[in-house]
Structure prediction request, 292 residues.
Amino acid sequence: MKPQYKWLPWLFLAPALVVALTFTISPFLNTIVLSFTNSTTLGGGSFNGVDNYIALANSPQFWISTRNTVLYVIVVVPLLMVLPLLLAVLVERNIPGIGFFRSVFYSPVVASMVVVGLIWTWLLSSDGAVNGLLQSLRVIQEPLPFLTDTTLLLLSCMMVTVWKGLGYYMVIYLAALGNVPKELHEAAQVDGAGGARRFWSITMPGVRPTMLLVGLLGSIAAMKVFAEIFVISNGTAGPGGQARSLVYTIREVGLGLSGEIGYASAMSLALFLLTIGFSILYLRSQRTDQMR
Prediction:
């Protein structure tokens, strides 16, 4: 490229850089600055050093939210790594009508989380379909408090997250399965290998990089969980707010009556560092597993 045209690539990058600077980098830097102030939604505020972070360390509310967020990742991510893969293996076959089932499995992805949450709220209520079915089968005598018990509420939200994400990650796995050489399956089948053996010896190694991607995407999404808990709990986060996540608490602190923007910014930065830490640990564990 001639020297006088070296600026040309930057011209093409300029729109994306402007958008990133305006809507990503600048707000992030502003959040860091605000985390060291006592700013509120009413305006004003002054520099208060690390007071917000000291308050976080001594806040039971913050640690409850952190515990719930970590539990969400631990429970949801493995399910989102395994179940969509099994689903993709089932719908990968070219048989009549398989396109219909692919569409059905993917339909929850395009539905609004508010709509999905309201549907599951109705299903999980004391007089809802789930309790009605379990009682009719005599599995339980009394309705289970899915929406009022802290543990059951959190598990219900996790179930909704997994249910809604199945189709999305199924499509990712379908693309990965298409890159696994069919000749390997045919050769293994000729050698007498069964379906389970071919899955563990051929399919799993072939989609391992995709599983790494799904695990990383699922971890980040689980860290940001909010809508499920807010809608299913009707904005209460369960009894005493014990089922709240970090994002739920950040919204509550930053947009509540007190509007503690500085404190909420410190909590947001803590969530960012927690997400980065989880991602690094996950990538290192996967790299160590691959080297064995």
Q: What stands out?
A: The domain at 60-291 is CATH 1.10.3720.10 (MetI-like fold). The chain is about 75% helix and 0% strand.
